[in-house]
Amino acid sequence: MRHDWFNLPPGQVVQELKSDQTAGLSTQQAAEQLNSHGYNELQEKARESLFSKLIGQFKDFLVLILIVASLVSAFLGEIVDSVAILVIVILNAVLGIVQESKAEKALAALKQMSAPNSKVIRDGKTISIPARDLVPGDLVLVEAGDRIPADLRILETFSLKVEEASLTGESVPVEKSSLPLNGDVALADRTNMAFMSTLVTYGRAKGIVVATAMQTEIGKIANLLQTGEKEITPLQRKLGEFSKTLGVACLGVCTLVFFLGIYNAFKAAGSISGPDVQLMLMTAISLAVAAIPEGLPAVVTIVLALGMQRMARKNSIVRKLHAVETLGSITVICSDKTGTLTQNQMTVTKAYANGKVYDLSGEGYDPSGEIRLNSHQAELGREQDLALLLQGIALCNDAKLTRHSDTNAWGIIGDPTEGALLTAAAKAGITQEGITLQFPRVKELPFDSGRKMMTTIHSFGQDYLAFTKGAPDILISRCTKIMAENQIRPLDAEMISQLQQINHDLAGQALRVLAVACRQYAQLPVSTDSEQLENDLVLIGLVGMIDPPRSEAREAVKVCVNAGIRPIMITGDHQDTAQAIALDLGIITDKNQSMTGKQLDQLSKPELSEAVKHTSVFARVSPENKVAIVEALKANNQIVAMTGDGINDAPALKKADIGVAMGITGTDVTKETADMVVTDDNFATIVSAVEEGRTIFANIRKFIAFLLSCNLSEVLVIFIAMLLGWPIPLLPIQLLWVNLVTDAFPALALGMEKKESDIMKLPPRDPSEPIVNKPSLFMIGLQSLAITVVVLGAFAYGYFSHNDDISTARTFAFITLVNSQLLCAYAARSAHFSVFKAGLFSNKYMNMAVAFSFLLMLIAIGPLEAIFKTQPLSVQDWLIIAGLSPLPFLVAEIGKLIYFKQK
Ligand SMILES: Nc1ncnc2c1ncn2[C@@H]1O[C@H](COP(=O)(O)OP(=O)(O)OP(=O)(O)O)[C@@H](O)[C@H]1O
Ligand SMILES: [Ca+2]
Q1: Which NCBIfam families match (predicted)?
Q2: What residues flank ligand 1, with Cβ below 6 Å?
Q3: Same domain, 338 and 373
Q4: In this predicted model, which residue has the larger pLDDT, 348 or 243?
Q5: Residue 119 pairs with which residues in a beta bridge?
Q6: Less Cβ crowding at N or C end of the chain, within 10 Å?
Q7: 336 included as an active-site residue
């Protein structure tokens, strides 16, 4: 493959790559090329090996305690116990690896879903395909905010600027051209090439793919792409710390129990026997095993991963795992207006030129409407200023009107604002193709949301004619003249205020208003500076378009307010338009709750912090304003979600606690910086993601409380029996089994709980509140005490009713412990309502988990009786147990009732 593409003129490059300058490759050719070149993907570094994953599992402090416990058991000759512990450790490690890799796969699949697409021309049509499907010879269109998807030779450029820091280390963007270069030039100076993974910061261009995947310059240097580091969420970190503390505490208790046991034995017999020491050692060890919630980290990982998959099905793709938890704490959602709160389905309904307001009929992008003046159809021949206005909006336009080949439905490619303008012009018979042939575009200053306008310059006979369109309040100030009766007249103060009044009126009807201006040049200006080119203009007129609110947005705003979340609208649009829509949606109730970017600029930091407390609409904001707003909100201790689509929004998204990128209109760069991508660009989707985030966290909290109350009860049973001087109620192997059986399955099922009915009626979770909060602590204390009491009661009953037979008594304790914990899992299903409210058996995973666990217990006391050292029980014994086991569940339910009633 040659590499001197930059030496060749565009035509020759296209020819050598067997492509076509305008139609690109055919589908057939592309498929063949894909076969021989493979996917356009950089190879990733080999993933962690299975062995190192296994080692990773054994690094855990708690697992180390277990391994020591197994060794000690073996040393004591308790081979069954030693093997049992080892089996549990290995099972746990395998489970951990399986679940982790499942979670990893789920994450990778999600990443794939938000992987970038590229605009290519194939078979003469512009289509969007995944960047990995690009092949040499493909014609690619790139624009500001895109990552260059492969190595390109630039064929046509409109002010393209590319930042190549990832390749050359140079962070100042390079201006590109299509002209061939002479000789062998260094990478950084190949100004007619755009390289994979570099970033378009301005303008747009058409290029042809000359190299893909590992053949690209970045592929050659980087060789292997680092896979992302494993991300640990704040919750997982806290849990890690917590389990260390738990481990230390547990070692302490075990030591205490050991010496207490020895002391008891000594008191009873007056001396200490070997078997006594051995039993105490084994008890201490199994206590350690019992107190450790082994399954916890794995269950947390899998619940987070499953939650992310659920969210992806509802159009929110989480890119950073921490977002799942943070979503539940969100107190403010700052949202764009256009497309997020509104439908982004623009239709021009008003036009203003030469002092007259015209009405446009018709809907959507179908150009079969009419332009009327005072309910008569306007004749372009007579309304020349209107004609110029419509020509201007058709020329100064990068969108395309399209018609679906099967359904005949009209649609657009590109920006809906511009699509609406094309439709409006077409209603007067002005088609983009026709007018562009007549006045070809020779130069342009692309739109950016900072300037809020764009300019194109066209050949106009011997001369050049520039059209500028943009936000009226800004564009009018760049105008010195106005078009009226087909004449250029000076723009006086009275006219300006008249224009502003019209703008205000149209915007007040929730219309998005654009102004259009022109300027004639005798020679093509060389400057690309806005101050020079977009100045001293001749105003032609205004157009107003509707963009109806999304129907689901109103409901979502209500849900937010109930959930203690404040929705804030941040828009580049005019204040009057923004207010009208925000009032309609219920984001504000009074026009005073809004402010413009300009007003914001006047405020000091403390003033702004004060202002954001009651301002919920920010209009005509710049990307810098967005950053300032996030900072001010965070200074007020708010947890902020911020949406964005443009390249300039990236800093604000990074600043926010959760940056949300738009999936449809979002640029590659915003998506890369975002913590979450909303694939349907819909505000309501963000709100449902918050709901999902809250549910996931609530479920994690539930199973942590459940696991802890089980473990605590086991510790208490042993500990209190020791204090009372009783024989040990549960053997190590029994404890191990109880722990294994009751832990993981019901806990996982708790992680699958559906949302509770009040989940969006509570205030956002305080992120500084511990996972085990006060209500959790109360429930853990209550349940574990109740379980302890019934287990000790069952043990005592079994002991005295069966002639002091210790192994029958332990059988009683064992079965009662398992059953009461399984029943408590049902109580844990609802944090503060009675579980009967949601329906006792409404979680089918829980029913399955409990049935399975119960079966495993039957196996332990049946076929495995010899290993578990249990005794067969009579029907009467079983009835006693059946009477005792539900008590902790009832205590927990009554406890919830009392604890949460008084609140
Ligand atoms: N293609 C365009 N050409 C010229 N001017 C435009 C174009 N698109 C938008 N504008 C003007 O620039 C302003 C800001 O646009 P921008 O895209 O930054 O925000 P927006 O889409 O109006 O609102 P939001 O930030 O809520 O999405 C618009 O209100 C409009 O006046
Ligand atoms: Ca926008």
Answers
A1: ATPase_P-type
A2: 336-338, 415, 417-418, 447, 449, 452-454, 469-471, 512, 514, 571-573
A3: no
A4: 348
A5: 128, 141
A6: C
A7: yes
